[in-house]
């Protein structure tokens, strides 16, 4: 495994994700953990990439120009940080993310954000398939409660855990915030 500090990829930390209509979620500490990671990456001058979902569905909370589509204040990108917009769950689809990473020689990614079973999982699968050394921070991501295919209600914790299980060892390595911060200390 490479020793390169991964680029921090913050997925969909937009205002709509904090609204009650987003649904019942898990990991109430996720935003604090993302903020800790963001502060550490910024302090070290390491690459930070923000991904923002811009819906193509009129009336969506993520429709361009709606307040829900804006970044949460704590995750407002700095001028030196890259922003990619997407309109599907996967941050690599219809974006220049892969090329941008390759041009800069970035081969390692640390994914945080929302939702674990949607945009995080989709992006991590693509990253792994594209050959990136992909890390997903379990306590800096969160999911929402959802019924499974058979209609059985699943808690946000169950949805989150299944998404992480889908990724770990196949497309990515799952770790916690403390382990992610240790990557910087080891540099």
From TrEMBL:
<dbReference type="InterPro" id="IPR050272">
    <property type="entry name" value="Isochorismatase-like_hydrls"/>
</dbReference>
<feature type="domain" description="Isochorismatase-like">
    <location>
        <begin position="7"/>
        <end position="178"/>
    </location>
</feature>
<dbReference type="InterPro" id="IPR000868">
    <property type="entry name" value="Isochorismatase-like_dom"/>
</dbReference>
<dbReference type="GO" id="GO:0016787">
    <property type="term" value="F:hydrolase activity"/>
</dbReference>
<dbReference type="InterPro" id="IPR036380">
    <property type="entry name" value="Isochorismatase-like_sf"/>
</dbReference>
<dbReference type="Pfam" id="PF00857">
    <property type="entry name" value="Isochorismatase"/>
</dbReference>
<keyword id="KW-0378">Hydrolase</keyword>
<protein>
    <submittedName>
        <fullName>Cysteine hydrolase family protein</fullName>
    </submittedName>
</protein>
